[in-house]
Amino acid sequence: MYNDKEGNKRSEGNEPHQYQSSNQTDRPEDQWKFRAPYKIHDSSGGKNFDVKWKGKCHCGAIQYELSREKPLASKYCHCTTCQRMHGAPFQWAAIFHKEDINFTNGHNDLGWYDPTAKSTTHHLPCKVQCAYCRTPIMDEGRNMILLFPTLIEGINTEKGRKAFEVQSHMFYPQRVVDIKDGKPKFKGLAGESNLVDEETGEELEGTNPKEKKEKEEREKGEGDKKKDE
Ligand SMILES: [Zn+2]
Ligand SMILES: [Zn+2]
């Protein structure tokens, strides 16, 4: 590693921090480099990739651009894995499509961790970090990325706060701090589990939005059948 003119860390590309992460591109285990979210979009800032936000890790080795003004969703996760892995009371994650991100620096300095298998190979879903300064960058899921917005330039401005404002909390019963912000608090995954009362901390039976929708659809189906009879 060496420092560039702006004081950002840069790697020569020949110092693999993880066995997949080097400047080689010809091995089967290097295929991730050609796929989103790691695919380098050509002409950065040009017509092919409209830059709305820029972000970087603490040491500057990893830098990226985002082409979407607002995340698809933004959430706080209170699960114990997030608490431990972020050294923080909860995780803040903003969901983007894999095509919305363009890594402009440090492509070869990414490190992975799969919390399920406790493995550092690129197996989805996994956590993605800067392999040098260890700043968490994002969680890579099978279809989406969950980006950590505190790396984004301008996130602590009115515009940044507004664009990345959370819609809900998840895994709230595992919390280490109470947050009374009036936003929906889910027992598990957002939209797929019962809500938890913000004041009492109690689970509210029958509030799972996914189950409610499925029940409505079943009842509607039965109603239609009756009409046909
Ligand atoms: Zn870094
Ligand atoms: Zn979590």
TrEMBL record:
Pfam families: GFA
Keywords associated with the record: Lyase, Metal-binding, Zinc
Region (Disordered): 1-30, 188-229
Biased composition (Basic and acidic residues): 1-15, 208-229
InterPro entries found in the cross-reference section: CENP-V/GFA, Mss4-like_sf
Domain called CENP-V/GFA: residue spans: 53-165
GO molecular function list: carbon-sulfur lyase activity; metal ion binding
Transmembrane regions listed in the UniProt entry: none
Biased composition (Acidic residues): 195-205
SUPFAM superfamilies named among the record's database cross-references: Mss4-like
Family: Belongs to the Gfa family.
PANTHER family assigned: CENP-V_GFA DOMAIN-CONTAINING PROTEIN-RELATED, GFA DOMAIN-CONTAINING PROTEIN
Name used for this protein in its record: CENP-V/GFA domain-containing protein
Species per Swiss-Prot/TrEMBL record: Sordaria macrospora
